[in-house]
Design goal:
Elements (H helix, E strand, L loop, with lengths): L6 H19 L3 H4 L1 H32 L4 H34 L12 H24 L21 H21 L2 H19 L12 H19 L7 H12 L3 H19 L7 H13 L3 H8 L1 H22 L4 H35 L2 H12 L1
Helix pairs in contact: 1-3, 1-12, 1-13, 3-6, 3-8, 3-10, 4-5, 4-6, 4-13, 4-14, 4-15, 6-7, 6-8, 7-8, 8-9, 9-10, 10-11, 13-14
């Protein structure tokens, strides 16, 4: 199967951007340096949407290269994401209550992270919604439930998992989407549906969501990834300008902020294409060098292999460290922030290594065993 270099390195950058954004928001640093924290938060939001584009690209590539029955495909996808998610969710439930205990008492006065939403989350759980939140999270469809139905379903227990729910929604329909995209009429239909769905999302038809965790709200991002893979399949080669214009056009259907992830992805794809081009001009050489160091280096690939676990498990670790600092040692904002960086960052790295080795890889290997999956596919076919 054809491989595209640098994807794992890109995942590493995206995941760790989100980690440091959450560290600022959970240590009160966001109140101390609001402009910097806001900028980092915007970069993190952009990173998650680049993740979404990347997912559209990768899943399309898998479906084009590996022909397999839907039951086998969805079982593989489930085993790829659910075991690590289940561990992180269990940790996240505990971390959620630790965060309530840490910050609802306003330990740093006005510098305490904003607690209004946290208070409403606590009230939602205390009022009897806990079983519903748990059921939603166990199904991985919590991101598709609006706050009017279940308060902040997309963020409860494990904040970063809102995008995992979005991924799962896409996985469920991806084979049909990619099959349609192989035909011109299907491409027109999918484009119209994506635009229509996004319009309904912006009008609030699906309910209230702080971020596009329901599929119609992010369909255009997945579409950019899907289109990229089809353009590469058609042999676009180094002519990346049509690709960049297509991506920019999709982003303009959203807004200026929505365009940024698409431009980031376009820049990455251009560098990915340039790395194999025999050209000697300084710009191309610089792009190849940047790509090799930032995305294709051994450390970037190593971090990228563990980026999924990093993305999910860092939040409970940050919540645990802040709870120890504030509730057990009575630390102030600055000592807590320093401790979180010094403890939670390596702690996240270690936890990611363990989850990747003992949970993620084992589940992936189990899913690759034909003897495990064949009976599922055979029963479905029958």
């Amino acid at each position: 199967m054809r491989r595209f270099g640098g994807l794992e390195g890109l995942r590493a950058w995206l995941a760790w951007t989100v980690v440091f954004s959450h560290i600022t928001s959970f240590t009160g640093f966001s109140q101390l340096a609001p402009a910097l924290a806001k900028s980092l938060g915007q970069v993190a939001d952009c990173s998650v949407m680049v993740f979404t584009i990347l997912s559209g690209f990768v899943i399309t590539h898998l479906l084009l290269e590996r022909r397999e029955p839907y039951p086998r495909y969805i079982v593989r996808r489930f085993l790829r994401i659910y075991p690590v998610y289940a561990v992180a969710l269990l940790a996240g439930i505990g971390g959620t209550y630790l965060a309530f205990d840490t910050f609802l008492s306003h330990p740093w006065g006005d510098l305490t992270p904003a607690t209004q939403r946290m208070l409403m989350q606590s009230e939602s759980l205390a009022s009897g919604d806990f079983p519903w939140h748990l059921a939603a999270h166990l199904s991985m469809l919590h991101g598709a439930i609006s706050s009017q139905v279940l308060y902040e379903s997309q963020y409860m227990f494990l904040g970063p998992a809102w995008s995992l729910s979005l991924e799962w929604q896409f996985y469920l329909v991806a084979p049909l989407v990619v099959a349609l995209a192989t035909h011109r009429l299907g491409q027109v239909l999918l484009t119209a549906l994506a635009i229509w769905g996004y319009g309904l999302y912006t009008q609030g038809v699906f309910g209230e969501f702080m971020l596009p965790s329901v599929l119609p709200g992010a369909g255009l991002y997945f579409g950019v990834g899907i289109a990229t893979r089809f353009l590469l399949k058609a042999g676009v080669g180094i002519s990346a300008f049509p690709l960049a214009l297509l991506m920019l056009g999709a982003g303009l259907l959203m807004n200026a902020t929505g365009t940024t992830p698409i431009l980031v992805w376009a820049a990455f794809v251009c560098m990915m294409l340039l790395k194999n081009e025999p050209t000697a001009d300084p710009v191309s050489q610089g792009a190849r060098w940047t790509f090799a160091k930032a995305f294709a280096s051994p450390i970037a690939r190593w971090l990228g292999d563990r980026s999924y676990a990093t993305y999910l498990i860092h939040m409970p670790i940050v919540q645990l460290v802040t709870w120890v600092c504030v509730r057990q040692f009575g630390m102030g904002l600055v000592p807590t922030a320093l401790t979180v960086v010094l403890v939670a960052v390596p702690g996240t790295l270690i936890a990611s290594m363990l989850l990747h080795r003992y949970v993620e890889l084992l589940a992936i290997q189990w899913g690759r065993r034909p003897s495990r999956l064949a009976p599922v596919a055979d029963r479905a076919a029958g």
